[in-house]
């Protein structure tokens, strides 16, 4: 299993990024979470097999229609005990 922490910058708030990502993540079978940050970026942690995580990361690089992804920073993260993929409150 692989878990990554991702921060996506660009026009990624107010365009359905988090809720579309939850749908994509659940379809891919990964666990984790996604949330908006006050600076206008989106932060997420995604856990699954290498192929599952890579599938979600590929989607995150483009985002939903209406979004614009300028950059995505991906770092390894420690595995967690998530059982689903959720949208968390803004921090």
Automatic annotation (TrEMBL):
It catalyses: an acyl phosphate + H2O = a carboxylate + phosphate + H(+). It is an enzyme of class 3 (hydrolase). Residues 3-89 form the Acylphosphatase-like domain. Coiled coil: none annotated. It comes from the Bacteria. The keyword Nucleus does not apply. Its EC number is 3.6.1.7. Keywords: Hydrolase. The active site is at 18, 36. Belongs to the acylphosphatase family. This is acylphosphatase. It comes from Microbacterium aoyamense.
